[in-house]
Design a protein that fits this description.
It is built from one helix and nine strands; from the N terminus they run E-E-E-E-E-E-E-H-E-E. It has 111 residues and is mainly beta. Strands 1, 2, 4, 5, 8 and 9 form a six-stranded mixed sheet that branches. A three-stranded antiparallel sheet has the order 3-7-6.
Length: 111
């Protein structure tokens, strides 16, 4: 079952980073060695819509860390509102949605 979360707001025109840790236990004390797995974070206006932003994760193997980086160009393509996102893991021939959630997108004050 996928975890459901809300990310901190993204500001239009900013570089944004999302870090995801994969653990084997509910207490989040034992990281999973994710070497060889791939991860994609997709952001869309709604579930089932074409992604506005699709990011490939950078895997830090034994620590269970996956990092996604959206550039200022990618966030500039967004408009203010609440977007749906998911994180999909591919391990061998298995594909799994591991996170579902929302990300608020806001216009910053400084232009």
């Amino acid at each position: 079952m996928a975890a459901t979360i809300t990310l901190d707001p993204w500001c239009i025109g900013d570089d944004e980073t999302v870090a995801v840790y994969i653990y084997s236990d509910a207490a989040a004390t034992t990281p999973v060695d994710i070497t060889g797995r791939t991860y994609t974070l997709s952001v869309a206006t709604a579930r089932g819509a074409t992604p506005t932003v699709a990011l490939t994760g950078t895997v830090t193997g034994a620590s269970g860390l996956v990092t996604f980086a959206a550039t200022d160009t990618q966030t500039t393509a967004l408009t203010a509102g609440t977007y749906a996102f998911d994180v999909v893991e591919v391990s061998g021939s298995n594909e799994s949605t591991i996170i579902l959630g929302t990300v608020p997108v806001v216009q910053r004050v400084t232009v």
